[in-house]
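Q: Hi! First time doing this. I have a protein sequence and I read that you can turn it into a structure. Is that right? Here it is:
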Amino acid sequence: MLTKAEMSLSGNLAPVVLFCYNRPWHLRQTIESLQLNLLASQSELIIYSDGPKLPPDEPFIADIRNYIADLKGFKSVKVIAAEKNNGLAKSVIKGVSDVLEKYEKIIVLEDDMLTTPDFLTFMNEALHIYQERKDIFSVTAYSPPIEVPAAYRHDLYLAPRASSWGWGTWKSRWQHADWDVNDFDSLKKDPGKKQAFTQGGEDLWPMLAKQQLGTIDSWAIRWTYSQFKNSAYGVYPVKSKIKNIGTDGSGTNFTFKTGYYESEMSAGKVLFDPLLQPDADVINAFRRYYQLPFYLKIKNRIKYGI
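A: Yes, that's right. Below is the predicted 3D structure, encoded as structure tokens:
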């Protein structure tokens, strides 16, 4: 049975966009947990299936497309299957942009995200409550395992960083993204601005620099930088409603095993404060979590000059 919040939201739900590539097992876990969501049957699901990069990928992608061809449990299912490999960054930028041509808001998942049964409820409430807050560019159901100060009493917090795990945004915010980072040269020459950018994590500036050098291809760092340029925040829950199962070495971004990002999922009611403000102690804890180890700082300086 739907709660009052779910019933009130059901007429204006954001479409759920899911990006997948060559991991059938991970995708099945992701979709099966999403099907258990109380709002799943009222939500439109749009799946972007990327094409093969190498011949060995082909049977895995065929398995995925057979599976998603007859999915049930959602209001509707639309599949966009690419003939060739576009890569995650290009797929997300184009896919989200295309969907937001038709809709005002969106919920985005990748193929390695487990969700709580109230994930869609949480995301739709957050998108509804904060849609008029011009200082908020994104919402997410994931929280990194930071040390939230004991005195902090809210169920949500603001951070100067956009999450790429179980996130959502609005057309009016996405339109501010500068995917070419046209002001990168001026940023590079401004130590104060670079320091301000890393309030969301010490890793942000090196990632943006590597993006511009062509060493990495990340939509998320460019989206976070667009958020920074507009003095905006991301909304995070204190208790995560997302668990990433892709840090097992199977992904294109995580080719090694790590438990660094793991959070336990927590279903349950979240109290939304429409007037939520940044908390300096929480932001400091958030930044500490993304602190770079000394050896990596040295490597960045020697190898990349950053």
